[in-house]
Amino acid sequence: MVVDSRRVHVYRDGGATDSPVLYWMQRDQRAEDNWALLFAREKAQERNQPLAVMFCLAAQFLGATESHYRFMLSGLAEVAETLKKLNIPFFLVKGNPSELLPRIISLNNIGCLVTDFNPLKPVIEWKETTRNGIQIPFYEVDAHNVLPCREISPKAEFSAMHLRSRINKRLSEFLVDFPALREMPESNFSHPWNWSGIQSVQAASGPSDFNGYEPGPRAATAWMNGFITGRLDGYALLRNDPTQDGQSGLSPYLHFGHIAAQRVALEVSRQEGATVSRQALLEELIVRRELADNFCHYNRQYDSTQGFHRWAKETLNVHRGDPRPFLYTFEQFRDSETHDLLWNAAQRQLVSNGKMHGFMRMYWAKKILEWTNSPEEAMEVAIGLNDAYSLDGRDPNGYAGIAWSIGGVHDRAWGERPVFGKIRYMNFAGCKRKFEVEKYIRQNFGVMMKKLQYQENN
Ligand code: FAD
Ligand code: FO1
């Protein structure tokens, strides 16, 4: 077995049949370093059957905008090219996956369906409906996490510390190199697939709307190499300073699966020196990121206050009626129209770059709790803005990050205060102690300094 069976979740079992194998690509949009594709290739080999890859384009995915779809489609166009060189056809179809998959499977007499792991509710819905509509073996392979989510923990972990101990014990079992994806026979590419009645789309590569980010696995790998050679050694020191370019910037590529987190972890681990920075990055890349998948997989209410721990629900309820001196609408937040220039600058960075600095995301979300009528409204505003504007949005990391900020998920209780209760508090003064607030505001806002002076003195 090329693929560790502990990565494989059996949605529907069944024997080998003399029929084609289909990999329904979803979260891990790449040909290389993709355990789900390697597994599908293995199934095709065992059966001596054709193999194809298909991506189902669904409308309005979690608030994604045209720009996000364009970015993703450009990446998929590159994937199709790469697969063609390996004699593996790639099909991009359009519609509701729950309806399309059963039809595609019967049209092509598919004997085995493979997909990749994704803990988000809409995708689970697609898979469960598909499973109920087919009779063939259906496998889900965790190609996104270094340690397979379902395998590494049977429950929602309370904090990073709890998951870290599980990860540290077993990292060496799973942080292994990837085998190369071997090409299929030439005949595979000319196998007659039947898409009658199915709307297909031509994946076209086009310019990215996100300055600095070119879509696709090649750009993702170049970005990773650039970070490792040029900025990894400064990571530990600079990553929490929003005025510096200290983070890796990899999240959009990890979100769309253009690069495997496991590839990044392998390459970072192989570096000499910069030990503190390498450890800090692996902590975020493996522990924090996989904690987010753990949260969304085991907590179906990951995008609501109902997903908070009891202590957090109680403390937020106690302070529901507290006076809220500042209240803003979704539109005022969206347009950076609050009284707080720092917050406005962070929102401006999100809207203009499609990516807000990680440290500012915490402050940004916590202030939304403070300046809305209720924690429920705060969740709606934070998730709505994050998924509409962030290139790495619509991702378990986002739901976990927002639940941490507003509901104390994976955090502990802190000293009680108005509105927040025991949820960790952050404020402007705290940011001023951490980094040059004025510089960040200027970088993102070209601010009138006197307005800032006024805020400081009042
Ligand atoms: P780096 O610091 O270079 O980290 C490398 C990788 O580690 C990241 O790409 C990411 O995959 C992972 N990582 C880093 N920090 C975290 C974290 N706190 N939680 C989970 N994984 C992490 N991340 C997203 O990918 N999409 C989001 O929509 C998102 N929304 C967030 C909202 C809030 C309110 C908060 C507090 C955090 C959010 N995060 C989100 C997590 C984190 O801020 C980003 O992953 C990180 O800033 C991405 O930039 P980077 O790749 O340069 O990070
Ligand atoms: N996954 C799909 O299978 N089909 C889609 O049409 C689709 C659109 C989409 C748009 C923006 C975006 O950020 C993600 C999108 N995804 C889509 C899902 C994505 O690949 C990931 O599976 C999830 O965001 C979880 O990481």
Helical amount:
40-55%
The sequence of SSEs as H and E is EEHEHEHEHEHHHHHHHHHHHHHHHHH
Q: Biggest β-sheet: count, sense, barrel?
A: 6 strands, mixed
Mean pLDDT value: 95
Query: Count the strands?
Result: 6
Which structural class is indicated by helix and strand composition? Answer: alpha/beta
Biggest sheet: strands side by side, in what order?
1-6-5-2-3-4
Could you give a quick summary of the protein structure above?
The protein contains 21 helices and 6 strands. The chain has 458 residues and is an alpha/beta fold. The chain folds into 3 domains: 1-143, 3-Layer(aba) Sandwich (Rossmann fold); 145-180 and 210-300, Serine Threonine Protein Phosphatase 5, Tetratricopeptide repeat (Alpha Horseshoe); 305-445, DNA Cyclobutane Dipyrimidine Photolyase, subunit A, domain 3, CATH 1.10.579.
